[in-house]
Amino acid sequence: MRRGQAAAISLVLASVLAFASIARAATPEELHREGTEALARGAYGTAIERFEALADMGFVHPDASFGRGLAYVARVRAGADRPGDLGRAAAAFEETLRLRPSDIEADHALDLVRAEVVRRRARRGKDATTVRPTLDRAVIGLASERTWSLLALVSSILLSIGLFLRRSRASSFSVAGRIMAPTALVLLCVFLPLTIAARRLRLTTRAGVVVVPEVHLVDDHGTALGGEPIPEAHAVEVGEARGGLVHVRWGATEGWVPSGSVRLLSP
């Protein structure tokens, strides 16, 4: 009994000291430096604490996200990984790529993490799962909301010009207007809905990554929906939160999962 109490007291003291150490590093710069130094000397636990503290502060930077991913990967390689570490690493690398799309190292690291997830699932006799986005998500994802809105604006301007030219007395201008106006109208009917859809997605959803070995979808009452579970490290589209559940979309599949099973990426 005394040994158990002593161990509990030691754990509490260690947590208090760790918290105090993080609290002293008041600025994001100090936390990032401490995390990077801890990672360099192999203290992956300390590195994870520092980088997670940065995330809790709302500090968003691709270097911080990349460092957090490396810290989780280091814990996995050391054989001291905890359930969900690969998912948290994938989330960190996904976040890095959202902030810095040209980061080749983060892209390569993300591929390696997901390959490790597939390998571990194969050892448990589970097949690799590949999910493709639905057609609407694939089309919207071809460009950013800003690009779709600019294309819709250009289409509306061309439509106005075409309608004006149609009334011209010069036959050449009139013919040009008769061609331009319907063409611009068709383009506007394409780009405007894409703009609205992209804006709706931005305002109502967040990107997330599964950070548990796998999670099964349930309905809004918590009843299992059946079907394949979502594996660790897979990206999902996160929507409404209700109680301890969040609504997710995974390819064409939708349902609810425990909020702690998904890590939201920085907007």
Break the fold down into its secondary structure elements and pairings.
Blueprint: H1 2-24, H2 28-40, H3 44-56, H4 62-77, H5 85-99, H6 104-123, H7 135-140, H8 145-166, H9 171-204, E1 206-210, E2 214-215, E3 230-231, E4 235-242, E5 245-250, E6 253-258, E7 262-264
Antiparallel strand pairs: 1-4, 1-7, 2-3, 4-5, 5-6
Helix pairs in contact: 2-3, 2-4, 3-4, 4-5, 5-6, 8-9
Structural features, described:
With 267 residues, the chain is an alpha+beta fold. The protein folds into three domains: 2-123, Serine Threonine Protein Phosphatase 5, Tetratricopeptide repeat (Alpha Horseshoe), CATH 1.25.40; 136-203; 205-264, SH3 Domains (SH3 type barrels, Roll), CATH 2.30.30. A hairpin with a 2-residue loop joins strand 5 (245-250) and strand 6 (253-258). A five-stranded antiparallel β-sheet has the order 6-5-4-1-7. A two-stranded antiparallel sheet has the order 2-3. The protein has helices spanning 2-24, 28-40, 44-56, 62-77, 85-99, 104-123, 135-140, 145-166, 171-204; strands spanning 206-210, 214-215, 230-231, 235-242, 245-250, 253-258, 262-264. Helices cover 61% and strands 12% of the residues. It starts with a helix and ends with a strand.
